[in-house]
Amino acid sequence: QADVFTFDPGFTSTAACESAITFIDGDKGELWYRGYPIEQLADQSHFLEVCYLLLYGELPDKAMLEDFENRVTRHTMVHEQMHNFFRGFRRDAHPMATMVGVVGAMSAFYHDSTDINDEWQREVAAIRLIAKLPTIAAMAYKYSIGQPFVYPQNDLDYASNFLNMCFSVPAEKYKVDPALSKAMDRIFTLHADHEQNASTSTVRLAGSSGANPFACIAAGIACLWGPAHGGANQAALEMLKEIGTVDRIPEYIARAKDKSDPFKLMGFGHRVYKNFDPRAKVMKESADEVLDLLGIHNNPTLQVAKELEKIALEDDYFIEKKLYPNVDFYSGIILSAMGFPTSMFTPIFALSRTVGWIAQWKEMIGDPQTKIGRPRQLYVGPKRRDYVPVKSR
Ligand code: SDX
């Protein structure tokens, strides 16, 4: 065992960054986008208006909103060559793998909006990413199930367009249900931004090197995929289905408390929220509404989720550790009821979070104080030593 090098840090860690975009109070369970509480935005606004707010800092007037929505709508198609790009993947590739690849490749197709020093190109890249991510996510889904790609339709709103691209087939047009589109739109809003979470920090770090915006967003998608982060919505639903019935909940609660067992309750706990995640509350109400709308009553998974939440919130371990349901606990139930496979849950999180990543990236790029991110380390390796040739070892 080499001597551990004694280390005197002699430095203080610096705050990650200043940001005016999203505020979280983990103890009070508050989340604001540019000062507006998430509950009010989820209830009274819609996703493209929230995109405008996150990007430009203020709510738009009618004309500004129409102009922004037109610009996004008219960028929803992807370069036709990208269809061939998709066809290089195996059919059974996880849609997140496809999205990381395709979004990263966007800088090969849209090189006229990669110059980060050009304000207009930064703006075009932002619009293209917000507009095309739903198309790319839908194409990843269609490709994975062997169905033909469905082109975006400019006469549909953002959420309806996404649902149509996912569920329409040549033989049968998808019937857009406005109430379902509103629920989809609300899910986009709830996931739009969340301060300096792992994937947003990844985008900022990648952006601090001067990488183009498409490469930075691809890095964010890759980080979001992890089951401890955005991948938790897929893992949470799979866990709820594995539990299956209410009588098996105690077995899983015991496992979550057992330090020797790596199992964690997916959809529970948060790095910041030590109170309810306000998004989980809205999502829980939405789950009831969507299942009612779809005529799905007594959904066993929702029953297990509600009972699991009830038991966990009364359990001393979870109370002491301040573990509450997070945004991922209920979202999978809604998405599953809408007809999405679990493999599409994180891609939907990614397309929703793209506006947050872009807003945070633009904020960082526009800050003259920005230097290349380079987190400090505490060296705990061996002291300096001389090489020993193999014949002498
Ligand atoms: C997202 O950062 C963001 O904002 C992310 C996100 C966003 O919008 O971008 O909000 C989205 O990623 C939400 C989180 C989704 N992940 C999950 O649901 C996976 C399950 N959750 C855990 O992996 C966990 O809660 C984390 C990773 C989210 C947070 O882990 P931490 O930092 O360890 O949480 P903590 O410090 O509050 O944990 C306190 C204790 C620890 O035990 P001790 O070391 O004190 O003994 O509680 C334990 C943890 O081990 N714990 C859990 C648990 N989560 C934490 N025990 C059982 N089940 C859990 N889910």
UniProtKB/TrEMBL annotation:
<keyword id="KW-0808">Transferase</keyword>
<dbReference type="InterPro" id="IPR016142">
    <property type="entry name" value="Citrate_synth-like_lrg_a-sub"/>
</dbReference>
<dbReference type="InterPro" id="IPR002020">
    <property type="entry name" value="Citrate_synthase"/>
</dbReference>
<keyword id="KW-0012">Acyltransferase</keyword>
<comment type="similarity">
    <text>Belongs to the citrate synthase family.</text>
</comment>
<keyword id="KW-0816">Tricarboxylic acid cycle</keyword>
<dbReference type="GO" id="GO:0036440">
    <property type="term" value="F:citrate synthase activity"/>
</dbReference>
<dbReference type="InterPro" id="IPR036969">
    <property type="entry name" value="Citrate_synthase_sf"/>
</dbReference>
<dbReference type="Pfam" id="PF00285">
    <property type="entry name" value="Citrate_synt"/>
</dbReference>
<dbReference type="InterPro" id="IPR010953">
    <property type="entry name" value="Citrate_synthase_typ-I"/>
</dbReference>
<comment type="pathway">
    <text>Carbohydrate metabolism; tricarboxylic acid cycle; isocitrate from oxaloacetate: step 1/2.</text>
</comment>
<dbReference type="InterPro" id="IPR019810">
    <property type="entry name" value="Citrate_synthase_AS"/>
</dbReference>
<dbReference type="InterPro" id="IPR024176">
    <property type="entry name" value="Citrate_synthase_bac-typ"/>
</dbReference>
<protein>
    <recommendedName>
        <fullName>Citrate synthase</fullName>
    </recommendedName>
</protein>
<dbReference type="InterPro" id="IPR016143">
    <property type="entry name" value="Citrate_synth-like_sm_a-sub"/>
</dbReference>
